[in-house]
Amino acid sequence: MRIHVPILVCVAFGICTDAAQAKTPDCSGRWPTNMAFVEVKNAGVAKNEEIDFRLTKTVRLTSERIGKDLFRQVYLVTFIRKEGPPLQVLTISDASSDECSMGSVRVFVVSQELGSQPQAPH
Predict the structure, then answer these.
(1) Are 97 and 25 contacting, i.e. CB atoms less than 8 angstroms apart?
(2) Structure confidence at residue 28 as a pLDDT band (50, 70, 90)
(3) Residue ranges in the chain assigned as alpha helix (H)
């Protein structure tokens, strides 16, 4: 599966906008989130009892049209552990207006964040 340059640029520089994604499918909280947890659980990175699923947050970072009704989407999923640091996962998957699961989901565990956090304007 090829990752398109606009998605990588958007994710790398944090310039994803809602306006560019307004008419694309929103799969937040469903397919990417569930598949992300299945993958981290199968890899032994997390267990059900370690995660407070009520606090799980899924944010679409970008969505790029790759076909007539087919979009490649990148989500950041943050699982909150009952103890310890949050577990952040990036997912890349394809979705249509009818179906979030238009193929497999690629899952990447974010192991370390470098640099400083952006500050809110004063």
Answers:
(1) yes
(2) confident
(3) 5-13, 31-42
Tokens of 72: 């490649």
Residue burial 92-104, b: 16+ Cβ < 10 Å; e: rest: bbbbeeeebbbee
3-class SS at 78? strand
Spatial contact of 89 and 107, defined as CB atoms under 8 Å apart: yes
In 3D, which of 85, 84, 83, 78 has the Cα closest to residue 54? 78
Q: pTM (2 decimals)?
A: 0.75
In which order are the strands placed within the sheet that holds 87-95?
A: 57-67, 70-79, 87-95, 106-110
Q: Is 51 helix (H, G, I), strand (E, B) or coil?
A: strand
38-72 per-position pLDDT tens digit: 999 999 999 999 999 999 999 999 999 999 999 99
